[in-house]
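Narrative of activities, Objective 1.

The group set out to show that a structural description can be obtained from nothing but a protein's sequence at a throughput compatible with the screening campaign. Below is one input-output pair from the validation batch, recorded exactly as produced.
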Amino acid sequence: MSLIPRLVVAYDFSEPARRAFELGVFMGRQLEAEIHVVTVLDSSDEKHTSEATRELDDLRKLLELQTCGTVKGDDLRMQCHAVAGDPAKAIVAMAREIDAPLIVCGTTGKGAVARTLLGSVSHELVHRSGAIVMSVP
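Output recorded for this entry:
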């Protein structure tokens, strides 16, 4: 049994997120861990309408095409998830729900001023998750 049986890869379709996904796949293989790739539809509206449900389904399909569907090999257990909400909170919730001790995410490399003004998902993950957070530039 691996010390890290499951890991979460936060994916926002950016280049740093792509590199985080590639690292997550590598680590998943090395650790024989389940990989859960999650993208978040940033939404302050908590209502679940049919339009929002369709949008999340489309987002999950796109996520699968760009991540899970690009990896070959029977040695990986991988799932794609698309959820709505605040990105950091949703990623932390996913990691807690599946009991993942590791979150891998991309980072844009914002400076201190930009991070203060705009916030940083990777920064919030470090402070909120209680998990190991690997931030990939």
